[in-house]
Amino acid sequence: MLELLNKKCFWELIFGELKEVNPKVFAKKDLSVKISKSSIQITSNKHNHKFDTNSLPVYVQILHDKLHQLNSLGYHRVAIAGGSGLIGRFLTKALKTIGWETVVISRSRDKGVFSDYSSTLELNLNDFDIVFNLCGTSVLKLALKPWKLKEIRDSRIKPTKFLASVTPSHVLLINASAIGKYNAEGEVYENTQNSTENEITRLVCEWEAASLAHPNSVQLRFANVISRDSPLILYSKIFNFLPLKIFVSSKAIFNWLAVEDILDGIFEILNRGIRGPINMYSGSVDWISFQRTLLPALGIKLFIPEKVIKFINPILSDLIFTRFTVRSMYYVKNTNLSKYLEIIQFK
To answer: 58-225+260-282+324-343 has which fold?
Structure first.
């Protein structure tokens, strides 16, 4: 039994879709959630609601199954550095919901436990099972400010070096990385070597090298993350209202990751004792199909060739226009993007 998180928590979806539950009742600190194999029980001082998972929306059923699977592994205490980002927020809420004691580490003393990455850590990491390092400024800054690459690099490399040095060897360090490690064509797996290097691949390689200094580490190579509140989705909604519709013409591949599938990847890591890099992806689609799927009402007025974007911002071009399809040696994913967007109610 544990406290429900703030109202942005995904469990809010339950309150919004089940009419017999009053959301105001559950906006209290005394509320708790208990997950079993076939039900979810939500309790406060005055109310007790138990739901059969089969009666819940599909999205909530999917989350329930992933969380129940993860909770079966017996881990209890984790620290999350970078818990305020898109992935960090989701993971913090998810792990707290299944009862794992979750501490968020932040650079801000107001938000977390240490004020600077080079300072003395005010938390005894010996007491934790896992340390997640998800630190890093959003790469979307490169869209309009390619000169921000150093800031993006430092926001990843510095905390990674610090956490790799202070995390005890018996504690598992799960470190963020990216499919930007690859600069190849065709299908890429965890053991695929780079064919050439650019600014992005060099950054990711250095990022991974910093985390590999820890003897008990995993590198999560994230594809482009999509969720109900990801910047990619928010920007696309704004874009839909613009009078001039822009369509990027490219034969590139868009490799994407449903944020909920991160839980599957973590389960594989913990259940099978995986160490080293693991590709985190849900599926792949060509760039034009991706745009048409994400923006079904797009009235195209202007085509921009990929070469133009590469000329204007080569770093952004290297980041978003890839020629490879992500695969994994550890599990198989091939989720339909259109169906996923439907499930999480974008359409």
So the answer is: Rossmann fold (3.40.50)
